[in-house]
Design goal:
The chain has eight helices and 28 strands. Strands 15, 16, 17, 18, 19, 20, 21, 26, 27 and 28 form a ten-stranded mixed β-sheet that branches.
């Protein structure tokens, strides 16, 4: 019983209310230890709440160091110390002393000859006006910094000043006492407002999110297109507005180019140069599969940038962010179910493209697998493990992915590894109910 646990050291010295241990492994405050006397008798078990190293308080003491552990029961020299567990500290007394959360209020304070006005950013509160007759200052006119500093001060237990911006119209004289009176009157007025509940921590963030979603807009519908990644050295096997080529295969006369999804630092110069050459040859459409593509294409004029697998976009906010990066169209993530996909289309249909057919790599890695070729998982599904370029290994489902193509949405088909109608297909997660 006495030797249970993980040995972590031996007692080298004892003193009143403490003892020293030469540690053979790391020890932390709040770990539980057993101090086993060399007599074999059962020793005390307790939680370490305080330790010193060389007279300095320590939360963690490493192997090979001497830790002074504070304990009010007798401990004998040469006792073996074992770790036997860990205790979670009781933080309730410290939590009880914390100040209550206060809502931060963003203010815009304006001063003119008729007084002070405070308006609010993102809050459903009326403007506050404090009438004053302010004359022209001969010396020391009111400056915005003074307003910002003064209105940042509050004794409220529920509110705190957030971002404050101030403007002053004219050379105004405002006595310090009058400014303090105005500031006190403002915070008292604000405390009494019925709309104060909207300023509670958490609700402000929710309100900003709702405002963002409400204001989210997308361009007017553009031309509906079908882009097809063709097999190497071949034409598109199906109708396409644009035949897509890989960067390695693209050249003069290419309509659309897809950039590599894996591009190390060593590959960047060659990719950048190939893009430059293609643009000079008149290529106008590029597909980015990773965020690095936006930087490489960012300064090019008159081109269209379409995001493409495996760059994920699962909702309208992601679509908006990618448009802000420079995309003209955004491909929806291939694993979305139909309900989530339709919800995304309802908000951003004009700029979304659907991946409707292909055998995408479901895993890309530089790890070397135990085998290449066809493998079967525990469900009986078959996959192909393939050695690819740049030391990569890619895993593909033997079944091609295929979902219905809406008539009013641009689509992308990857026919580089499969031809529609020639292989068995699966809808992956399209019909999955995730509720």
């Amino acid at each position: 019983l006495g030797a249970s646990g993980l040995q972590c050291g031996r007692v080298t010295r004892v003193a009143q209310g403490k003892f020293e241990v030469n540690l053979s492994r790391r020890l932390l405050v709040y770990e539980r230890i057993r101090v086993q006397p060399d007599s074999g008798d059962e020793g005390p078990v307790f939680t370490v709440t305080k330790m010193d190293v060389n007279g300095k308080s320590a939360f963690r003491v490493e192997k090979g160091q001497f830790a002074t552990i504070y304990f009010d029961k007798p401990v004998t020299r040469n006792s073996i110390v074992y770790k036997v567990g860990i205790s979670n500290p009781d933080l309730s007394p410290r939590i009880a002393k914390l100040a209550p959360a206060r809502a931060a209020v963003d203010l815009a304070v304006a001063a003119d000859s008729k007084g002070l006005t405070v308006t609010f950013s993102g809050a459903m509160l009326p403007a506050w006006h404090y009438p004053l007759e302010l004359g022209e200052a001969i010396q020391h006119p009111l400056v915005p910094e003074t307003l910002e500093t003064e209105f940042a001060s509050t004794r409220s237990e529920r509110l705190v000043a957030g971002r404050i911006t101030a403007t002053v119209t004219g050379r105004l004289f405002l006595p310090a006492t009058s400014l303090k009176d105005a500031r006190r009157a403002f915070w008292e007025w604000l405390e009494a407002q019925p709309g104060l509940d909207t300023l509670k921590p958490g609700k402000q963030g929710l309100a900003r999110f709702k405002a963002l979603m409400t204001s989210l807009t997308f361009p007017e519908p553009a031309r509906i297109t079908i882009s097809v990644l063709a097999p190497t050295g071949a034409a598109s096997p199906v109708h396409a507005n644009f035949t897509v080529k890989t960067l390695a295969e693209a050249g003069h006369g290419t309509w659309e180019v897809i950039l590599p999804d894996f591009c190390s630092e060593l590959d960047l110069p060659a990719v950048r140069e190939k893009i430059r050459v293609l643009i000079s040859q008149g290529v106008k459409r590029f597909r980015v599969t990773s965020v690095y593509g936006f930087t490489l294409l960012g300064k090019a004029q008159g081109i269209a940038i379409i995001t493409s697998f495996p760059l994920p976009a699962c909702n309208s906010l992601a679509v908006r962010e990618l448009l802000n990066c420079g995309a003209t169209r955004v491909q929806a993530w291939i694993e979305l179910d139909s309900v989530a996909l339709n919800a995304m289309l309802a908000r951003a249909r004009s700029v979304v493209e659907l991946y409707t057919f292909g055998r995408p790599a479901i895993l890309t890695t530089r790890a070397v697998p135990a085998m290449f070729g066809i493998m079967t998982d525990g469900r009986g599904l078959k996959f192909e493990v393939e050695k690819a370029e740049k030391g990569l290994t890619r895993i593909y489902s033997l079944q091609a992915f295929q979902i219905p193509a809406p008539a009013d949405v641009s689509t992308f088909m990857d026919c580089s590894r499969a031809k529609p109608g020639a292989v068995s297909t699966s809808k992956f997660n399209y019909e999955q109910d995730w509720k």
